[in-house]
Design brief:
CATH class of the largest domain: Alpha Beta
CATH topology of the largest domain: Rossmann fold
CATH architecture of the largest domain: 3-Layer(aba) Sandwich
Number of helices: 14
Structural class: alpha/beta
Largest sheet: 6 strands, parallel
Strand content: 15-25%
Helix content: 10-25%
Number of domains: 4
Number of strands: 24
């Protein structure tokens, strides 16, 4: 016989009114089982010969409960004066009301509890039922190809503590590095993509984990619902359906571990008001499971973004403070809500340019993965009594190893300078440097902006008006897995070649004129080239620093002029047009002057 923690029980549906005379109703049972947090005790199984009900551990459990101020299911029913029928009664209603009582007893149990378990139990015993846990989050929780992830560190702790957590969700992998591909033209204006779809494509999240991860996690413990770029605002509308879909597979989440909000604050300007969105998320989750237990992470501070987002630190502080005030009022007797302090665990200073727990100022490095798992584990232990102790985080963890790229190949026949190399699993990006090699001496290295996201790079015209046909260029590459110097590899051996671009020429004439407040008309002369696949119209706001041009795609058959709307009235815009074919994007033709809509 053992006494241990019990976290999950099965649920059985029963009618709200019993149909047999003398059997209590569901409402009567529910009222009888009302209990304070941490006051319930479960029992299951038999001892001795295990041959009859006389071998039940029930008397031992009741004795233990009286000694420790707890109540078993039967004790609560007796205290309320309810007479329950024998479970073995021939009437099926008797079994149904007992099953409902067991499920209701579990639903009304919160905080730390225990179970007195015999040496032999039924095969379907609820004490042995895995606890379905779904992690909901963004890139911090999804992880990138080659990461161990904090989800793995929590899985390790659960396994060490014998917590029968079964992690569920529609996804299983990390964000994977995209396959190498040529430059992509802008989408056609008439076929512009909608906003980010509500439901993920599982194929996008099949990135591998660190080779050191336990196969038990990779092959059966890595399910989740976390995606790069995901916002809390998106998941408010999807969480109920996602939970219901898991329930249809027999794994309705008993608990949610939620890490969301940075993208709403960082890129959409949210602050303390995001707490209302989080409350809606909790409400929608409870529609799928009224008894779901929820652990909400606060939002971690990231290192300084300088002038790019100066309000981010204060908005993050405002949200975290508002969340701390609100969450204590959100718990119900059957659905507690608590906070995991991952901001404190990560400890990144928003005034600094480096953080010991993040490889880029936000996303956890190997040490940060332990820290976030520790924060969630502490919340699980302190609020729900899971485990004998909260997980510990090591003082230091080796960073990921980097490798120098190899296998560079130069191709001058497409966009003029195209270089590919062997993919490095886990590379977050690749720094690329290039230069023109003159007959007498090489020019200084130029650093490509932005860096390459996969193992291919094509020299774009935007920052240099290169390449030029017939000239020789040299390129070198290095792997990057974070901001620190030790997360960047040595430069590769350079590769060189002569540029012979086969991209199309731009229109001979380009015009732009104001058409109304925030609107301009753009015209151009057609390019007579059968290889043409797209026109790219660039509209650049010269009055707004640090902003990218808006790009609009038009089919070769599009008839100019085309009206561009949604611009800022009174701002100065520069307009230029490029032509595309299968080789890539050609040089631009820039309209004369600027236009003010």
């Amino acid at each position: 016989m053992v006494v241990g923690t019990l976290l999950g029980l099965g649920q059985t549906a029963v009618a709200s009114r019993a149909s047999a005379v003398g059997i209590p109703t569901q409402d009567q049972v529910r009222a009888a089982l009302a209990s304070a947090p941490g006051s319930n005790l479960f029992w299951t199984g038999r001892v001795g010969s295990c041959g009859s009900e006389d071998d039940s551990v029930k008397p031992t459990a009741e004795q233990y409960a009286r000694q420790h101020g707890h109540k078993t299911l039967e004790m609560r029913l007796a205290d309320a004066g309810l007479r329950m029928p024998p479970f073995a009664a021939p009437d099926d209603h008797a079994k149904k009301i007992w099953r409902f009582a067991s499920a209701e007893f579990a639903r009304q149990t919160s905080h730390q509890t225990g179970v007195v378990k015999g040496t032999c139990v039924r095969d379907d015993n609820a004490a042995d039922k895995p606890y379905d846990v779904m992690i909901v989050g963004d890139s911090v929780s999804n992880g990138y190809e080659g990461d161990a992830t904090w989800r793995y560190r929590l899985w390790q702790w659960a396994d060490d503590q014998n917590w029968q957590a079964h992690f569920v969700g529609p996804l299983t992998g990390t964000e994977k590095q995209r396959a190498a591909h040529p430059p992509e033209p802008p989408p056609l204006v008439e076929n512009a993509p909608d906003t980010v779809t509500a439901q993920p494509d599982p194929s996008e999240f099949t990135g591998a984990y660190a080779r050191s991860n336990d196969p038990g996690f990779v092959q059966g413990g890595s399910a989740h619902y976390a995606m790069w770029g995901r916002t809390l605002g998106q998941d408010v509308g999807t969480i109920e359906a996602v939970m219901a879909a898991q329930g249809a597979q027999g794994h309705l989440p008993d608990m949610l571990l939620v890490e969301l909000g940075f993208n709403d604050i960082g890129w959409q300007g949210a602050g303390a008001d995001l707490v209302d969105t989080m409350k809606s998320f909790v409400d929608n989750a409870r529609r799928a499971n009224p008894n779901v237990q929820i652990v909400l992470a606060d939002v971690p501070q990231r290192t300084s973004l300088g002038s790019a987002n100066p309000q981010l630190p204060q908005r993050t502080r405002d949200y975290n403070a508002a969340l701390a005030r609100a969450v204590p009022t959100w718990s119900s007797p059957t659905s507690p809500v608590v906070i995991a302090d991952i901001d404190g665990a990560m400890g990144c200073n928003p005034a600094s340019t480096a953080c010991a727990t993040a490889y880029d100022g936000l996303h956890p490095n190997p040490l940060g993965e332990y820290r976030i798992a520790s924060a969630f584990g502490a919340a699980l232990h302190n609020a729900f009594g899971i485990g004998t102790a909260a997980p510990e985080s090591p003082a230091s963890v080796p960073d990921r190893q980097v490798s120098t790229p190899t296998g560079l190949v130069f191709d001058g026949t497409q966009q003029g300078v195209t270089v590919t190399w062997n993919k490095i699993v886990g590379a977050h990006s690749y720094d690329v440097q290039w230069r023109e090699v003159a007959s007498r001496a090489a020019k200084p290295w130029e650093t490509a902006v932005p860096p390459a996201r996969f193992n291919r790079w094509d020299l774009p015209w935007q920052y240099s008006f290169q390449p030029v046909d017939g000239r020789r260029y040299e390129v070198r590459v290095r792997e990057v897995t974070g901001d620190a110097d030790n997360l960047t590899s040595a430069w590769s051996t350079p590769v060189s070649g002569i540029a012979h671009p086969t991209t199309p020429k731009p229109p001979d004439e380009v015009t732009a004129g104001a058409a109304g407040p925030g609107e301009i008309d753009v015209g151009w002369t057609p390019v007579h080239d059968d290889s043409l696949t797209r026109y790219a119209v660039y509209v650049y706001d010269t009055d707004t620093p640090l902003v990218f041009a808006k790009v609009y795609g038009y089919a070769p058959t599009a008839r100019p002029p085309r009206r561009i709307t949604g611009l800022t009235p009174g701002h100065h815009y520069q307009v230029f047009i490029c032509s595309w074919n299968a080789s890539g994007e050609g040089m631009p033709h820039i309209a004369e002057g600027t236009v003010v809509p």
